[in-house]
Amino acid sequence: MGVRAKLAELMRYGGVGVLAAAIHALVLLGGEWLGWPLALANLLGFLLASVWGYLAHALFTFREQTGGTTFPRRWLLIQTSLNVLVSLLLPGWLGSWARSAGGTLVMVFTPTAINYVLWSLAARHSRARRARQAAAASGPVRFHADDLGLHPAVNATILELCDAGALDSASVLVAAPAAAAAAEACAQRPDFELSLHLCLSEGPPAADPARIPDLLDARGRLALGFGRLLLLGCLPPWWPRRRRIDAQLALELQAQIRRFQELFPTRPLRLDGHQHVHLTPLVWQQLRQLPPALQPIWIRSLREPWPWRGIPLALWWQGCLGLGPIKWLLLRLLNRGRAAELARRGIATNSAFCGVLFTGRIDAAVIASAQRQLRSGGGMVLAHPARGLLAEAAELQAYPLSRRFYASPWRAREAEVLMRRTR
Fold first, then answer.
1. 141-148 and 379-383 strand pairing
2. Where along the chain do its domains lie?
3. Rounded to whole angstroms, how far apart are CA atoms 416 and 164?
4. CATH class of this structure's domain 141-420
């Protein structure tokens, strides 16, 4: 908010506050003239001034934040409760001085000061609520698949689901064996939304291996998993190893972005992370420092609500065995504040998300629960569909983590559950 706008807001607040104080003073003095108990007159003055402030500050003072609607009623309850408490206690605290002119001013302007803090907080809350409502109007629940480009079987399944209308978008592993084939197929599907799936934990690098030795294992494969990235992020920035990692990480991230731009020259750059590595502080810091030509227009966030009902106990048990709740909590903490930062930087993100708690096990119950929770604000449901067990796929030698993951029969089950949505 500019200086002039802030001054105008303060002037409006002062005008409403003066009228509220006048209402309070008139009731207080009138009650004293009528012989009412001081505490009763003070309480009634507080209540009338509170109702005036509740309406006028929302509809006039903070109209920009509220959009011309009243604050949520709980703010009136909070303000009234505090006013009642102060009105009952303040005369006793002031003692005999309460009936003097100075005491009257204290009893009038103390709630005005309290209300300034309260209504400012209410205005911020209203602005945030309107932002969430705007995000809610941005679209329905969308279905997304990761790992396009990993293997021909993964490509075939994702593209079949796309053609059936069961998927809205997918993320691409640009250095994976079937990435070029995915790019060729997606050229015929211009409305299928694509994102770069930043990968640092497995597979070949996109940058020159000789320039990023600290990111690779003995076989020349990327080896910065989620846990290792978190630990490296704890090193002080001036530490020699941390400085090497930062420099090499910048090279690899930019190389993957350029590879995406080469494979999909007409697509805007959207970005997420294999194993959600983009949310680790080390990677996030590098994304902040990307040159303008490599800046994404969208980055995935992971604000996943907790599903309170609709999930079978057996699936909960499997999720707990897979440390789903721990991953959920960790990623919620890492995601904290990211959406607000992206908004400041002019980068879009999804309004909500489903795919951490039961990652790898997205069945009909999980989808139904996600649709119930996300339908008011839209969001993204993440799956990893693929038909055909890929444990023996020779193309995945450089992807040991994904090779084990795609050996699960759950990959075909997820594909079938998504396909059933279209029938």
1. parallel
2. 3-134, 141-420
3. 12
4. alpha beta
